[in-house]
Amino acid sequence: MKQDDQIIDITLTPYVHEHQHFLSQFFLPDTQTPFSALPEESLKYCQEDRDRHPFVIVAGGIPVGFFVLHVGDNISPYTTDKKAILLRGLLIDRRYQGRGIAKKALRILPQFANGIFPDKESLILAVDEKNVIAKTLYLKSGYRDTGVQKEGRSGWMQIMEYRLSGLDTDLE
Protein backbone atom coordinates (compact mmCIF):
# COMPACT_ATOMS: atom_id res chain seq x y z
CA MET A 1 0.00 0.00 0.00
CA LYS A 2 1.44 3.34 -1.01
CA GLN A 3 1.30 6.16 1.52
CA ASP A 4 -1.22 8.18 -0.51
CA ASP A 5 -3.65 5.29 -1.06
CA GLN A 6 -7.12 5.84 0.38
CA ILE A 7 -8.14 3.33 3.01
CA ILE A 8 -11.38 1.63 2.07
CA ASP A 9 -11.63 -1.43 4.30
CA ILE A 10 -9.94 -2.26 7.55
CA THR A 11 -10.02 -5.33 9.73
CA LEU A 12 -9.29 -5.86 13.39
CA THR A 13 -7.30 -8.98 14.15
CA PRO A 14 -5.49 -10.53 17.11
CA TYR A 15 -1.78 -9.73 17.23
CA VAL A 16 0.50 -12.49 15.98
CA HIS A 17 4.30 -12.50 15.93
CA GLU A 18 4.31 -11.92 12.15
CA HIS A 19 2.96 -8.41 12.84
CA GLN A 20 6.04 -7.50 14.90
CA HIS A 21 8.14 -6.32 11.95
CA PHE A 22 5.50 -3.76 10.94
CA LEU A 23 4.70 -2.68 14.50
CA SER A 24 8.37 -2.08 15.33
CA GLN A 25 8.41 0.55 12.55
CA PHE A 26 5.43 2.52 13.90
CA PHE A 27 6.06 6.07 14.98
CA LEU A 28 4.02 8.98 16.24
CA PRO A 29 4.58 12.71 15.90
CA ASP A 30 6.02 14.43 18.97
CA THR A 31 2.61 15.99 19.66
CA GLN A 32 1.14 12.49 20.21
CA THR A 33 3.91 10.66 22.09
CA PRO A 34 2.80 11.95 25.52
CA PHE A 35 -0.59 10.28 25.03
CA SER A 36 0.16 6.77 23.80
CA ALA A 37 2.80 4.09 24.07
CA LEU A 38 4.13 2.53 20.89
CA PRO A 39 3.12 -1.10 20.24
CA GLU A 40 6.45 -2.56 21.42
CA GLU A 41 5.95 -1.06 24.89
CA SER A 42 2.30 -2.16 25.05
CA LEU A 43 3.25 -5.69 23.98
CA LYS A 44 5.67 -5.96 26.94
CA TYR A 45 2.78 -5.24 29.28
CA CYS A 46 0.65 -7.82 27.45
CA GLN A 47 3.35 -10.46 28.06
CA GLU A 48 3.29 -9.64 31.79
CA ASP A 49 -0.52 -9.57 32.12
CA ARG A 50 -2.55 -12.32 30.42
CA ASP A 51 -5.69 -10.16 30.74
CA ARG A 52 -4.25 -7.69 28.20
CA HIS A 53 -5.08 -8.78 24.67
CA PRO A 54 -3.22 -7.06 21.78
CA PHE A 55 -4.89 -6.42 18.43
CA VAL A 56 -3.82 -4.98 15.11
CA ILE A 57 -5.71 -2.76 12.70
CA VAL A 58 -4.99 -4.01 9.18
CA ALA A 59 -5.56 -2.17 5.89
CA GLY A 60 -4.57 -3.64 2.54
CA GLY A 61 -2.90 -6.55 4.33
CA ILE A 62 -0.61 -4.19 6.24
CA PRO A 63 -0.77 -3.44 9.99
CA VAL A 64 -1.52 0.29 10.25
CA GLY A 65 -2.78 0.52 13.84
CA PHE A 66 -2.73 -1.16 17.21
CA PHE A 67 -4.74 -1.40 20.44
CA VAL A 68 -5.15 -3.52 23.56
CA LEU A 69 -8.35 -4.83 25.14
CA HIS A 70 -7.80 -5.29 28.87
CA VAL A 71 -10.16 -7.24 31.14
CA GLY A 72 -9.94 -8.51 34.70
CA ASP A 73 -9.13 -7.04 38.09
CA ASN A 74 -6.25 -4.84 36.89
CA ILE A 75 -8.61 -2.39 35.16
CA SER A 76 -9.86 -1.23 38.58
CA PRO A 77 -8.00 2.10 38.46
CA TYR A 78 -10.34 3.04 35.59
CA THR A 79 -13.60 1.34 36.55
CA THR A 80 -15.05 -0.96 39.18
CA ASP A 81 -17.41 -2.47 36.62
CA LYS A 82 -16.45 -6.15 36.29
CA LYS A 83 -18.36 -6.27 32.99
CA ALA A 84 -16.15 -3.63 31.33
CA ILE A 85 -13.35 -3.91 28.80
CA LEU A 86 -10.60 -1.29 29.00
CA LEU A 87 -9.45 -0.03 25.60
CA ARG A 88 -5.75 0.85 25.85
CA GLY A 89 -3.08 2.21 23.56
CA LEU A 90 -5.18 2.78 20.44
CA LEU A 91 -2.97 4.36 17.80
CA ILE A 92 -2.54 4.65 14.08
CA ASP A 93 0.98 4.70 12.65
CA ARG A 94 1.87 8.26 11.60
CA ARG A 95 2.20 7.24 7.94
CA TYR A 96 -1.48 6.25 7.86
CA GLN A 97 -3.06 8.99 9.98
CA GLY A 98 -5.63 11.33 8.49
CA ARG A 99 -7.33 8.67 6.37
CA GLY A 100 -10.25 7.83 8.67
CA ILE A 101 -8.71 4.58 9.92
CA ALA A 102 -9.26 5.31 13.62
CA LYS A 103 -12.84 6.38 12.90
CA LYS A 104 -13.52 3.15 11.01
CA ALA A 105 -11.81 1.05 13.68
CA LEU A 106 -13.89 2.67 16.44
CA ARG A 107 -17.05 2.06 14.41
CA ILE A 108 -16.44 -1.72 14.19
CA LEU A 109 -14.71 -2.14 17.57
CA PRO A 110 -17.86 -2.53 19.73
CA GLN A 111 -19.17 -5.51 17.78
CA PHE A 112 -15.64 -6.95 17.48
CA ALA A 113 -15.06 -6.66 21.25
CA ASN A 114 -18.51 -8.07 21.99
CA GLY A 115 -17.67 -11.11 19.85
CA ILE A 116 -14.50 -11.78 21.82
CA PHE A 117 -15.91 -10.94 25.26
CA PRO A 118 -19.66 -11.65 24.98
CA ASP A 119 -20.14 -11.40 28.76
CA LYS A 120 -18.93 -7.77 28.87
CA GLU A 121 -21.27 -4.79 28.75
CA SER A 122 -19.09 -1.77 28.02
CA LEU A 123 -15.85 -0.44 26.60
CA ILE A 124 -13.99 2.00 28.86
CA LEU A 125 -11.06 4.22 27.94
CA ALA A 126 -9.03 7.01 29.45
CA VAL A 127 -8.21 9.97 27.22
CA ASP A 128 -5.88 12.78 28.17
CA GLU A 129 -7.71 16.10 28.58
CA LYS A 130 -5.11 17.75 26.34
CA ASN A 131 -5.70 15.23 23.55
CA VAL A 132 -8.62 17.14 22.03
CA ILE A 133 -8.46 15.35 18.66
CA ALA A 134 -8.81 11.90 20.25
CA LYS A 135 -11.47 13.07 22.70
CA THR A 136 -13.55 14.51 19.85
CA LEU A 137 -13.15 11.30 17.83
CA TYR A 138 -14.32 9.17 20.77
CA LEU A 139 -17.35 11.38 21.36
CA LYS A 140 -18.29 11.21 17.66
CA SER A 141 -17.86 7.41 17.84
CA GLY A 142 -20.50 7.00 20.55
CA TYR A 143 -18.40 7.16 23.70
CA ARG A 144 -19.72 9.32 26.50
CA ASP A 145 -17.77 11.20 29.13
CA THR A 146 -18.49 9.50 32.48
CA GLY A 147 -17.49 12.60 34.46
CA VAL A 148 -14.74 10.57 36.16
CA GLN A 149 -11.16 11.80 35.95
CA LYS A 150 -7.88 10.04 36.70
CA GLU A 151 -4.37 11.41 36.81
CA GLY A 152 -2.16 9.92 34.11
CA ARG A 153 1.43 10.22 32.96
CA SER A 154 0.68 13.43 31.03
CA GLY A 155 -1.90 15.01 33.33
CA TRP A 156 -5.61 14.51 33.89
CA MET A 157 -7.49 11.95 31.84
CA GLN A 158 -11.23 11.66 31.30
CA ILE A 159 -12.83 8.24 31.57
CA MET A 160 -15.18 7.56 28.66
CA GLU A 161 -17.58 4.68 28.08
CA TYR A 162 -19.34 2.94 25.20
CA ARG A 163 -22.25 0.70 26.25
CA LEU A 164 -22.26 -2.64 24.42
CA SER A 165 -25.77 -3.57 25.50
CA GLY A 166 -28.20 -3.59 22.62
CA LEU A 167 -25.60 -4.45 19.98
CA ASP A 168 -26.97 -6.79 17.37
CA THR A 169 -24.20 -9.38 17.18
CA ASP A 170 -25.94 -11.21 14.34
CA LEU A 171 -25.18 -8.39 11.88
CA GLU A 172 -22.25 -8.89 9.57
Structure description:
With 172 residues, the protein is α+β, with helices and mostly antiparallel strands. The chain has helices at residues 20-23, 39-48, 101-116, 132-140, and strands at 10-14, 52-59, 62-70, 84-92, 122-128, 144-152, 155-163. It has a 7-stranded mixed beta sheet with strand order 1-2-3-4-5-7-6. A hairpin with a 2-residue loop joins strand 2 (52-59) and strand 3. The longest helix has 16 residues, at 101-116. The mean pLDDT is 87.
Number of helices: 4
Total beta strand runs:
7
How widely separated are the two ends? 26 Å
Mean pLDDT: 87
Indicate the structural class. Answer: alpha+beta
The major pleated sheet works out as: 7 strands, mixed
What percent of the residues sit in helical stretches (DSSP H or I)?
Answer: 10-25%
Which features would summarize this protein structure in a list?
alpha+beta, seven-stranded mixed β-sheet, about 25% helix, globular
Task: Give a quick rundown of the structure.
The chain has 172 residues and is an alpha+beta fold. It has four helices and seven strands, in the order βααβββαβαββ.
How are the SSEs placed, and which strands pair?
Elements: E1 10-14, H1 20-23, H2 39-48, E2 52-59, E3 62-70, E4 84-92, H3 101-116, E5 122-128, H4 132-140, E6 144-152, E7 155-163
